[in-house]
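Handout, tutorial session.
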Amino acid sequence: MIQPALCLAVAFLLGLPLEQTRYVFLLSALPCGFFGILFGENFKAIPDVASSSLIASTLFGIITLAGWIILLSHLH
């Protein structure tokens, strides 16, 4: 939740147009990726914490991303 809020603040400080601000902001609000797990599999180094954090991030991201989208729809 902090990263998208910081991104939004920086976008406003830089004076980005609203359309670009929405794109940048939503990209920053997406849950973390799973490439670390995929790369770790090649080296037999997949900690259990990585899988758990990916699942938690995705579930929490579903809720927060919906909230951020609603907030962005009210920006003019």
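The second record follows below. Compare its token runs with those of the first.
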Amino acid sequence: MLSASLKAFRRRVPLIVICVALVFSLAPVVWFLLTSLKDRSETFQIPPAWVFTPTLDHYKNVMGFGGELTSLYQAGRIHNFFDAAVNSVVIAVGSTLLSTFLGTIAAFGFARFRIKWENALLAAYLLIRMVPAVSLVLPLYRLFGFLGLNDTYTGMIIAESTFQVPFVVWMMTGFIRQVPASLEESGMIDGLGRFGAMMRITLPLISSGLFATVVFNFVQAWNDFLYPLVLTSQRTQTLPVTIIGFIADGNIFWGEMAAAGILVVLPVLLFSMLAQRYVLAGATAGAVKG
């Protein structure tokens, strides 16, 4: 009897661990959501108010639709949320496209050609990926200042791509190696060039892996805080940096910060949920083989 109970408990352990991890991960998000819907007087209520009348005032303030933060918006102390959203979209999409293109071309070279010191080069890409971003932000700031790229879309797209390209190379090399080279050779016999064979034969066959790579890169660029904080100002400021603008005039607008955080997370969350099938298929399909 004891043995049967122990076996039943062991079978439930993974489920218990998953539930604990889920609660641990979702608790901050749920708390942020509740804070964004509470009246300012209820934010710091002790014990916390779990039953309350929801309000959308914080969301209206964030988006600049009147309210008590109008003067801060007019004074330029809080960046316009919609302008920051446009900046985030342009930078995230631009860096994702650039890094995916460059990384895929490099991965195709690793997968299809004999390259001297191939393993060393792949290790170098991995090393670049492991370098802390904070160690590169000052050199990039000085370099972009010299080139006139600070607070520009071009500079931010290049900066975000520095960490995305190595990831693309590692992911796409494994995916491309899973496609037999003979398929490309058949296409080349029919008149396709090397690049045309890659675009019309190889990439459609690894579309799930390519899509997963694109999603990961987009989410990383969308959520990045350090590079936009240092390399942008009012003109190209992104959403994560805009959130800290609600710490103003010796006052912290917690409700507005929570509402802005939810608005920043929501598009990526919905996009990831819609693309979940492709992301899971792609993330588990590729691996770099020696």
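Points raised in discussion: The CA atoms of residues 36 and 73 lie 19 Å apart.
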